[in-house]
Amino acid sequence: MNNNTQAKGVIAWFACNPVAANLLMVLILVAGAFAVYHARIESFPSIPPTSITVSVSYDSGSASSAEEGVALKIENALQGVEGIKSLSSTSTGDDVTVTITKLSNYTLDALYQDVKTKVDSISDLPSSAKKPVITRQLELEDVISINLYGDIDQGVIQNYTDDLRLKLLASPKIQKVDYIGRRDEEIVIEVDEGKLIEHQLTLETVANQIAAESLNQTGGQLKSNQGTLILKAEQQKYSAHQYADLPIKHMTNGHVLLLSDIAEVKEQYADNSARTYYEGHASTGLTVKMYGKSNINDVARTVRDITNTYQATLPPDIQITLWNDQSEPIKSRLSLLLDNSLQGIFLVILLLALFLNIRVAFWVGIGLPVTFGGAMVLMGDSFWGLTLNELTTFGFIMALGIVVDDAVVIGESIYEHREKHGASLQSTISGAQKVATPTTFGVLTTMVAFMSMSLIEGELGKIFAQFALAAAFCLFFSLVESKLILPAHLAHVRMDSRAKSGLPLLWNKLQQRVLLMLKYFTFHIYKPCLKKVLDYRYAVVCVFLSLFVLIAGTLVTGKLKTVFFPEISTDNITIDLAFQEDAGFGLVLSETARVESIANQLSQQLTEEFGLLTPPIQSVLTDVSEQSAQLIIGLSSNDERPFSAAYVAKEWQSLVPTLEGIDSAIFAADMITDKAISIELRSKDKETIEQAGRNLTTYLSNIDGVFGIKGTLSQAQTQIDINVNPLGQSLGLTTSNLLQQLNFAYQGYEVQSFQKGEHEVKVKIQYPEERRKSIADLNYAKIRLSDGKVVPLTSVADISTRYVSKNIERIDGERVNVITADVDKETTSPDQVFLRLENTVFKELKDNYRDLQIVISGQQKEQEEISNSFYSVFTIALIGIYALLAIPLKSYFQPVLIMCTIPFGIIGALLGHLIQGIPMSILSLFGILALTGVVVNDSLLLISRFNTMRAGNFDSRQAIIEAGTGRLRAIILTSATTYFGLVPLLSETSPQSQFLIPAATSMGYGILFATAITLILVPALVMIQEDAKQIGSKLMSYLFNNGQEAQQHEI
């Protein structure tokens, strides 16, 4: 082949035009730097919104009334609306929330308009129900939280919190700020019932009089010679003192009856049974959120600057603190990426410098910035619109060791060619072109494996698509760099690496020693071993199959544990306390304080036990409501303590005794907050789901390792049923009139409301609190008849009590009882629990309750969706890989032979999990899916060399031996660079790295195991293929010859 022929092609053109190659490199680097500068950064990739919420505030007093009066009417109105995937509702005594989830092929805006039209057309909602509020789900992400706290009046803290919130919202970078623990103010008018009777008044008449005297109202305009005059009365009252002076009735003696004469007027908080504390002090907080297009680092930095400036204006008895900063994890991840990249580049260059020329190693390693820069360009808003987040940076780290593979092979081939044929431009072009086809298709197979992840269904599938895309973009630019830029650089590299003195001389000696060792290994160890492998090829295949069965068996026997999502420790611990219905608020407060006190004791104990400089528990945020409490514990950074958050949570839980009045106490220190067990019991019959729920709860409580069992219908409250008796009916009372009087007296009646700054203050009228504390108070209640007379409630109505659900949930037109529970993964697994349920109690429930539907939801549903689609996606990936192998090999069977390495690569991944001591999880499967595209690359190089040797008149045995020894260095280098690129990540102990390790383990160990397969098993399979060809040829020859003889015999 002459020089002109060899110089054809895009590789030759760029090698001959180094200016073009350098300009391309600079263009990619500059564009990449620009993309990095303008990149949006977020903690976790946001999922496109898929739902619409209809909220109706309805003070009905019971969940069943809210369901009947509001939820069912909204559900009926939405029947038949196109684009709805599912419809669920939750009804309580205070409100109704209906959630509509859209189909994937329907736009949220179109569905919103259809839902709004239907809901706005409902005309028969209860008169006391507020107007439905319809909202679209937004792409919101928490950025950082702020708490102001101190031993000072709550109202003072809230005023400063309001002020800080306004300052934050004044910044153009901050779009949304929500409150934490802010208590709404209200004015309460507690009327003395005796005074009402004395002055012949009712609550309703008093309320009407207040509304008539406290208002701002325009009376029109008066046009005069001096101009237009506005007639207006500004008599709105804004304080308890002002309301107390309102006139209620003018007496016949001329005396004016004031509101203060018949009632006590006071200012208080709307929910007296709600408290928020930070470090034991009264507190109010803010959570700053951002929309999808914002940069989390910019937002967090702005919040810190404004907060630090505002802190200087606070009085000394109010402190301020920042916590839950979500920009920190992504900073750690980016720092981890940078550290791993630098370490990976160092290890890759070191390996290449040992086996190749150090200048070749440098130019191969320098391709990494080009690769990552190009990937950042494709991730930008001008193309795919991806952000820098925990998943895309994960994709970069995973790609780190893979992207240099084709550059290593190209560099090794050019190095080998220039050693044999001289350091000329033509040698460089020939070396690059020699392996261009297998390396190109090798990269494409890896891209197919990564890109196939975007087809996996479920929310996790959408999330991990970003990781896959980031890795695929890196691979694409590694292809560009290795084929167009690298040859131009290597064409001008001096191959003479002789040094006369100093460190270069020592390095040359080390390199020579390594090359001699590699040569010795190739021809004195590997080659003889390969010959034996070929001699006993069937036995070798049997050994590998036995190894496959042995290691795969660890999954069946349970020696290698499996979980859906690994427990990933965080720097926070959350404790949720739920108390029984009869537990008073004082008991809830005292028991919660007891738990917090134990946390402080534990912190001191751990500090002394481990000799820590910093206490492990840094902060405690406590949120207490009427019958529940939540404590969020902030821990010191991971490098300041030698134990995980899970360890602290377990120690804390062991120290907390059984609390008085407690219903459940759940300690969580995991990034994944969804319940491991979530089962929906659906039926149109309420009794069915209640009884089935009790049966299922009982069964779950008897399974070791299952705890925190709850059902949505198990949260009950006492309901008082009041029915007008015959005497009441004879006196003209109706159920409606009776309940209205009781509702005004005990629930209160909202007279009016007014604005105080940004917040609404409600004015309510009701009986004194001491008259509304117990059921016994009803015995003294008075009912007013139509003629103005007053009679005892007990004389005109029958009173009884019963327990009812606090909330009622419905899904797709049926009532549902959702049973949830957590699982101790050291004792059992969700899969094992569900297997037991399927074989036992589920069958019993279906037999006993014909109308019952059992639907798995939560984590397990997500797991089923992913598992079902994973096998389909895996099949698609295998088909794509097969096609990309068949094209360059021009064979139907050889791709199958190469793809035999995939199962054994998976065995390497399983072995890696056993060595690392981590369970198999969904993240491990994603690593395995990526692995399928990587493990075939070395085998493709080997088979390509084998085909070349066969074309050069080598017999099969000699050709595979020459291919194995000739490609040994390239195979070892690509596998080593891929593995060592992941070594820094595999050895990480920080919480941020735990998220990445399962997939990295699958990739790293799978590659190492696949190297042995490529060098040993593939040659054996090649020879077995050749045996099959010979047998087939002999069989065809025999059949053909016998056929000819029979034909001649007939003649």
TrEMBL record:
<dbReference type="InterPro" id="IPR001036">
    <property type="entry name" value="Acrflvin-R"/>
</dbReference>
<dbReference type="InterPro" id="IPR027463">
    <property type="entry name" value="AcrB_DN_DC_subdom"/>
</dbReference>
<feature type="transmembrane region" description="Helical">
    <location>
        <begin position="1003"/>
        <end position="1024"/>
    </location>
</feature>
<feature type="transmembrane region" description="Helical">
    <location>
        <begin position="870"/>
        <end position="889"/>
    </location>
</feature>
<feature type="transmembrane region" description="Helical">
    <location>
        <begin position="336"/>
        <end position="355"/>
    </location>
</feature>
<feature type="transmembrane region" description="Helical">
    <location>
        <begin position="435"/>
        <end position="456"/>
    </location>
</feature>
<feature type="transmembrane region" description="Helical">
    <location>
        <begin position="921"/>
        <end position="943"/>
    </location>
</feature>
<dbReference type="Pfam" id="PF00873">
    <property type="entry name" value="ACR_tran"/>
</dbReference>
<feature type="transmembrane region" description="Helical">
    <location>
        <begin position="391"/>
        <end position="415"/>
    </location>
</feature>
<protein>
    <submittedName>
        <fullName>Multidrug transporter</fullName>
    </submittedName>
</protein>
<dbReference type="GO" id="GO:0005886">
    <property type="term" value="C:plasma membrane"/>
</dbReference>
<feature type="transmembrane region" description="Helical">
    <location>
        <begin position="361"/>
        <end position="379"/>
    </location>
</feature>
<feature type="transmembrane region" description="Helical">
    <location>
        <begin position="463"/>
        <end position="480"/>
    </location>
</feature>
<keyword id="KW-0812">Transmembrane</keyword>
<keyword id="KW-1133">Transmembrane helix</keyword>
<keyword id="KW-0472">Membrane</keyword>
<dbReference type="GO" id="GO:0042910">
    <property type="term" value="F:xenobiotic transmembrane transporter activity"/>
</dbReference>
<feature type="transmembrane region" description="Helical">
    <location>
        <begin position="896"/>
        <end position="915"/>
    </location>
</feature>
<feature type="transmembrane region" description="Helical">
    <location>
        <begin position="538"/>
        <end position="556"/>
    </location>
</feature>
<feature type="transmembrane region" description="Helical">
    <location>
        <begin position="12"/>
        <end position="37"/>
    </location>
</feature>
<feature type="transmembrane region" description="Helical">
    <location>
        <begin position="964"/>
        <end position="983"/>
    </location>
</feature>
